[in-house]
Amino acid sequence: MVHSARVLALPNPKIPAPTRQTALHPLVPKPVSVLSRVVRLGTSVATQVAPPVLTIALLLLLWQMLASSPTSALPSPLKVIDDSWEIIVDPFKVGNGIDQGLFWHVSASLIRVGYGYILAAIVGIGFGVLLGQSTLAMRGLDPVFQVLRTIPPLAWLPLSLAAFRDGQPSAIFVIFITSVWPILINTSVGIRNIPQDYRNVAKVLRLSPIEFFTRIMVPATVPHMFTGLRIGIGLSWLAIVAAEMLIGGVGIGFFIWDAWNSSLISDIIVALVYVGVVGFLLDRSIAAIGHLLTRGTAAQ
Amino acid sequence: MAYLKIDHVGISFQRAGATTEVLRDVNLSIEKGEYVSIIGHSGCGKSTVLNIVAGLLPPSQGGVLLEGRAVEGPGPDRAVVFQNHSLLPWLTVRENVELAVNKVFRGRKSKAERRDWTRHNLELVHMAHAENKRPHEISGGMKQRVGIARALAMEPKILLLDEPFGALDALTRAHLQDQVMEIHSRLGNTIIMITHDVDEAVLLSDRIVMMTNGPAATIGEDMHVALERPRRRLELVGNSTYNDARAAVLEFLYARHRAPTLAA
Ligand SMILES: Nc1ncnc2c1ncn2[C@@H]1O[C@H](COP(=O)(O)OP(=O)(O)O)[C@@H](O)[C@H]1O
Ligand SMILES: [Mg+2]
């Protein structure tokens, strides 16, 4: 009966409760003059937008100063823009072989991540439910999973190349095997943490297994699940760049590797900006979907 | 034939190889419409008794009969109000009650009737005004009221309350006790309520069942409370029947069966 708290989670399985602010300001602010509204908008822009913009500006300035000397090994920001102007202004360029615009490289990487990640989500959630619900499955599978999940993603690549004999499925497999563990483990922790009270309510109401799954298990587990999904997408993006450096073809990882081989350091820096921004957007979109689905649930 | 009969019930738990006998030879008969409180020190096995009646725990010995039929598992004819309300946080107040109503009355009531019945039960506990709020947006007392509405809405044969007011402040608690008394007098429900509050037991119950301390706890005394209804807490202050009943329970709990930790 006691829900055994064998937490085997990666980072914190509990999603931070989305703070709901509805209760905090019950009074609707009275209509105010246009002037004061403009002032308020101005203040919020100043406090929200100004700090990051300022920080970035300062960092760029610092970088510019450090990299300005003629002996510097790395280009300064202005030099990056100058060197790589072509790829900056034409991300949609269609050329031969790997001579494509950055947009196409990024989307090739995203498609690989998409396949591997969706597969990982399906398998991870499936096995997570199994491990969470069945103590027997937990006993049998958990030790295996605990060992497998510590294997670094790229260590799988040679094996999967041997198995698939092709770069594309191998990269997808690496993404899958990288992101499946946090999804699986967090889902099972979420299910194990469903309070006994909710299970008792279900029993008293005689909910069918399907009703239990949709009305209790899914809503109770979604916050944990999305913690796992969010860690998973981050790891996928980390792994794809490295994997693509090894398998070649179109993709942001190989673009970086190719630029390095051609000593186009400025191109590498532009590509890194893309990698960072896309990684950030991926993380935020999974978080946003999770937030949307857990409205009102996590706050207890 | 009693309405509910707890017949020679015993239960032992196995944990890490060791067996603990929690209940031994518990016998209790309850008539239809009776309000029975079970009182005892913390950890003696009160919730365990309730969970056995609910069907959530199978007894190791003996059994429970409701209207002459053996209790085999949990079901909506024995609705439970858990101590910590156990509302589903992702559902609104109305949806929480609706989940129960739709499940219990599917096929018996039309959709419109079920909606009315949900609303009716929320009105019974004075919570209709907050039907679209989620549990975390309402107070502890309100949550407990919704829990009671959910249980009442199942039209159970017997209502099982596990320390329903335990986590509430004194004023909210008194208010809720009055509401439960009012509902009981209006609907004539059969109720078992777990409590560790002597005043609450005397005020609300027709009978107070006192449990001995564990391990192997059982019923030590079964006392009738001969107070007329409706009962009003203010009028009972100097009432000798009330004071005698109160003294008897206190004597049982603190003179004859002190909590093991206090006795040391
Ligand atoms: N599922 C269980 N497994 C093992 N021991 C249990 C279990 N449920 C209850 N107990 C034990 O039974 C005793 C009585 O518990 P409980 O009925 O919750 O007491 P009360 O409600 O009177 O405070 C406690 O000592 C508790 O540790
Ligand atoms: Mg208890």
- Tell me what portion of residues of chain B adopts beta-strand conformation: 15-25%
Oligomer: heterodimer
Give the strand order, joined by hyphens, for the main sheet of chain B: 6-7-8-3-9-10
What's the Cα radius of gyration of chain A? 24 Å
Task: Provide the list of bound ligands, each named once.
Answer: adenosine-5'-diphosphate, magnesium ion
What would your notes on this structure say?
The complex is a heterodimer of chains A (300) and B (264). Chain A has twelve helices and no strands. The relative contact order of chain A is 0.14. Chain A is mainly alpha-helical and 300 residues long. The longest helix of chain A has 39 residues, at 209-247. Chain A has helices at 34-48, 50-66, 77-83, 85-89, 102-133, 135-148, 156-164, 167-192, 196-204, 209-247, 252-261, 265-293. Helix content of chain A is 71%, strand content 0%. Chain B is α/β, with parallel strands linked by helices. Chain B has helices at 46-54, 93-105, 111-124, 140-153, 170-187, 198-204, 240-256, 260-263; strands at residues 4-15, 18-30, 35-39, 61-66, 69-70, 78-81, 158-162, 190-195, 207-211, 219-224. In chain B, strand 4 and strand 5 form a beta hairpin. In chain B, helix 2 packs across helix 3 (111-124), helix 2 (93-105) packs parallel to helix 4 and helix 3 (111-124) packs across helix 4 (140-153). At the A-B interface, helix 9 and helix 10 of A face strand 6 and helix 2 of B. Magnesium ion is lined by residues 46-47 of chain B. Adenosine-5'-diphosphate is lined by residues 13, 15, 22, 40, 42-48, 214 of chain B.
